[in-house]
Amino acid sequence: MSVRASPTRAQVRRNAAPVVGGRHTRLAAAAAGLLAIVVVVGIAFAGSPSKLAAGTKIDGIDVSGLTPHAAQALLARQSASMSRVPVVFTVGTRRFSIRPDELSVAPEWGKAILTAEGKADGTSLIRGFRRLALRFFPVDVTPRARAYTAAVDYELSLLAAKIDQPYKPARIVRHGLRLRIVEGQPGEVLDRAASSKIMISALASLERTGPIELPTSIEQPTLTAADLQTAESQAQQALSARVRLTVRGRNFELTPKELAPMLQFPRAAGTQLVLGGPAADRFFARLGKKIGQPARGAHFAASGDHVSVVPAQLGIGLDVPASAAAVLAAAEKAQGRVATLSVTSVSVGRTTESANAMGITGLVSSYETYFGGIENRIHNVELVAHLVDNKLIAPGATFSFNQTTGARTAAKG
């Protein structure tokens, strides 16, 4: 019988070492082989850096294998052939046809080619793999475009004039003494900023697809029926009865029929009911003539050879803004509908101080003539004579009869 001794640990390690070393060698060899393949593949597909990679398109045009110069020339020819081919834009049922040359639209082919080059650029190895990837995943670069801004803005303004439907704010409508609120309506307007980008991009493209919809935006009324509720109630109260006016010891009456056309309803949120407009102007002008006192500017009076200053005289006029507010405040009351109107001092022409400062104290010369004829001629001469009355001629100035009297009209004889 024979007995076999088991190996020691040292012997085991010595026996196993060659096996492990063999694996490392094989892995290193495989890695080196793989690296060599990678290098070979990368270099094989690197191609010429002076030509665009296979799988490169710009705006749908295949420019694979072309030099940047040749690619730009090709794209420029294609663009020129499309410059007079219109693009149809729509907004709802409206259609608008626009050509690229009308807006001087020009794609930036040079920048697009640089972008395409950058996607397949680098050292030979990196370039090779980038170009290999493009064979499986082609790239299509869309160029940016420039246009004549003034022409684009003008075209958009023409489109907006046909498209825009401004919103209608809520309003108060009056029929005689009856009032009602009409609800506002939203509007629709061309979105000019977004439409500009869409138009330029579509006109720069070398493809012509179906009509392109331009965006619009909805505008809601800024004045709603709710905003007018208070003003409508105030106006109804104002037209419910007469208003008594008192000014300078005199009394007048304002009827609802007279007051109605003076009411100015709010046209924007936050504004209030006021009195104004042509009807109010006419009413207060008539009232001002009844209670006012005309003003007179300083002038000169000759007595013999002596000239003296006739002082200015202040007038009295109606303070229309304050009086209109007082009338409306009284009209909005259910009782005690009395408005005390305000007056103010009024001045016209030259002040007494400025007349005295001119230093006119004596008569320089005088002239007298006689005229006669038929009644119409006498009347006409008198009209013209009044036109040159009290005209001052400054030192060194020239007096022109024609400029002073003005055009010859029927009103002047």
Structural class: alpha+beta
Spatial ordering of strands, largest sheet: 2-1-6
Count of individual beta strands: 21
- Evaluate the radius of gyration: 47 Å
User: Beta-strand level of the residues, as a percent range?
Assistant: 15-25%
Q: Which percent range fits the helix content?
A: 40-55%
Please give a structural write-up.
The chain is 41% helix and 19% strand. With 413 residues, it is α+β, with helices and mostly antiparallel strands. The chain has a 3-stranded mixed sheet with strand order 2-1-6, with helices on one face. A 3-stranded mixed sheet has the order 4-3-11, covered by helices on one side. The longest helix has 38 residues. It is elongated, with a radius of gyration of 47 Å.
Brief sketch in words of this structure:
With 413 residues, this protein is α+β, with helices and mostly antiparallel strands. The protein has helices at residues 9-46, 68-82, 109-118, 124-136, 149-163, 192-204, 229-238, 256-259, 277-291, 320-331, 352-357, 375-387, 401-405, and strands at residues 56-58, 61-62, 87-91, 94-98, 106-107, 139-141, 145-146, 171-175, 178-182, 187-190, 212-213, 216-219, 243-247, 250-254, 263-264, 274-275, 299-303, 306-310, 315-318, 338-340, 343-346. The longest helix is centred in the N-terminal third of the chain and has 38 residues, at 9-46.
